[in-house]
Write a structure and sequence with these properties.
single chain, alpha/beta, TIM Barrel, eight-stranded parallel sheet, 10 helices, 14 strands, 33% helix
């Protein structure tokens, strides 16, 4: 349920309504839009009993949320959310670019990549330290040593760091090194892990599962938000279909659909969608044209020698040209991106 306040409601009226709701053992989330304030009620609504909230001063109406994804839906918060990750805002006018190797392999590799993507305009360095792989014999990542190398690269370049966490133990370790957690496609419905992320309050890049519907995806995001962490950025990375020409099928329609249903920002991962570097340029541009708030792209100084997902990683030179092109497309769709090459 949400309480819609009148356009001219006073701050004191908003505080009084919140106080009454809070006194009943319910949590509130206040969303102040350009025209009016909405107070979201979180918890067992039966505790409201017969309390006449609609008669309180400043209240315009009560709205019951029909969608199962209540906190991530637009009824709860009509205004688009802008997530601030240590100074970089995701979901606003400026597009965000996250780039780096699939996996952190060694110090030289990650430092070289970080300097290259920073020069091209990226704000985030991505790199896997905990690598869940299809085969148990494939490279599994450097774990904490990889996170330390990401932190060193951050110190050298000023880039923020995003890296995947795969367990509660990984969350505890990574929390010391990263600016934003990433939940990968395999863990989209690992609800215990999502609750742990929710309790951390740290921003999270939340990828869609390969067979997850948009409704299931938004409902999974509720597990994070219900613990009090509203700093969720969604990431479309392709879904599994009958097509075999690409690793997955990028669901471009997910971008406008999410924008219509949810207030959360959404970025696109063309690398995991395509699985082949030759298609990343076109998919990246299509994503921005469709309204995505940014991209997360895999970049490696020597893609052919990468220890994981070599076929889908761009060289720094190719990534640099992509960033230059994205700057031009951003202007057309009335967004901003600062190419730095």
């Amino acid at each position: 349920m949400v309480i819609v306040m009148k356009p001219n409601s006073k701050e004191s009226e908003i505080k009084e309504v919140s106080k009454v709701v809070g006194s009943l053992g319910l949590r509130v989330h206040i969303s102040q839009g350009t025209e009016r304030t909405i107070i979201g009620i979180i918890g067992d609504k039966r505790r409201l009993g017969d309390v006449p909230l609609e008669l309180m001063s400043g209240v315009e109406k009560l709205v019951h949320i029909s969608e199962s994804y209540k906190l991530s839906g637009k009824t709860f918060k009509p205004e688009p959310s802008v997530i601030d990750v240590n100074g970089v805002k995701i979901g606003g006018k400026e597009l965000v670019m996250m780039a780096g190797p699939c996996a952190v392999e060694n110090r030289e590799q990650i430092l070289e990549t970080a300097k290259a993507v920073k020069k091209s305009g990226a704000q985030f360095l991505r790199g896997g330290a905990f690598k869940p792989r299809t085969s148990p014999y494939a490279f599994q990542g450097l774990e904490e040593e990889g996170l330390k190398l990401l932190a060193e690269a951050k110190e050298a370049t000023g880039l923020l760091v995003v890296s995947e966490v795969t367990s509660e133990r990984a969350v505890e370790i990574a929390d010391k090194y990263v600016d934003m957690f990433q939940i990968g496609a395999r863990n989209v419905q690992n609800f215990q892990l999502l609750r742990e992320i929710g309790r951390s309050k740290k921003p999270v890049l939340f990828k869609r599962g390969t067979a997850t519907t948009i409704s299931e995806w938004l409902n999974a995001a509720e597990y994070i938000m219900n613990e009090g962490n509203y700093n969720v950025i969604l990431c479309e990375r392709g879904i599994r279909t009958f097509e075999t020409a690409t690793r997955n099928t990028l669901d471009i329609s997910a971008v406008p659909v999410v924008k219509n249903l949810s207030h959360l920002p959404i970025i696109v991962d063309p690398s995991h969608a395509a699985g082949k570097s030759v298609y990343i340029d076109a998919l990246s541009k299509a994503a921005i044209a469709a309204g995505a708030d940014g991209l997360i792209v895999e970049v490696h100084p020597q893609p052919k020698k990468a220890l994981s997902d070599a076929a889908q990683q761009l060289s720094p030179d190719v990534f640099n040209q992509l960033c230059k092109d994205i700057e031009g497309i951003a202007k057309i769709v009335e967004r901003e991106f600062k190419y730095g090459g």
